[in-house]
Amino acid sequence: MGTVSQAMKGVWSLILEIVAAVIWVIAVVEAFLHRQLASLGVHGQLQSVILIVAAVILALVAFRALAGLLRLLFVLLLILFAVHVAMPLVRP
């Protein structure tokens, strides 16, 4: 039963690492856009709106691109959880 728990922790850790990588990329692109917009003279609320829209678009694109992988990992996590729950029932 310990091996199944370790596998579940590993899959969950992989999911969190993918999400963290997506957030990191969004932050890097947002910082780049912030500098570019400031150099073009775009400041204040307009810059905030542009950056929010860009962040939302990047998040949607990233999660759409990674949807298959995330779906597979969540299904694997659910299967491992089901095995983890069923193991005590199977043992004599």
Quick overview of this protein structure:
This protein has helices at 2-39, 44-65, 67-90. The chain is rod-shaped, with a radius of gyration of 20 Å. It has 92 residues and is an all-alpha fold.
Query: Regarding quaternary structure, how should these chains be classified?
Result: single chain
| Residue share in β-strands | under 5%
The helix fraction, in percent, is over 70%
Element string (H = helix, E = strand)? HHH
Distance between the termini: 14 Å
Care to count the β-strands? 0
**Low confidence ranges:** none
Counting helices, strands and paired strands, the structural category is mainly alpha
Overall 3D form: rod-shaped
Report the biggest beta sheet as strand number plus sense, adding barrel if it closes: none
Average predicted confidence as pLDDT: 86
Q: What integer value in Å does the Rg equal?
A: 20 Å
SS element count, helices:
3
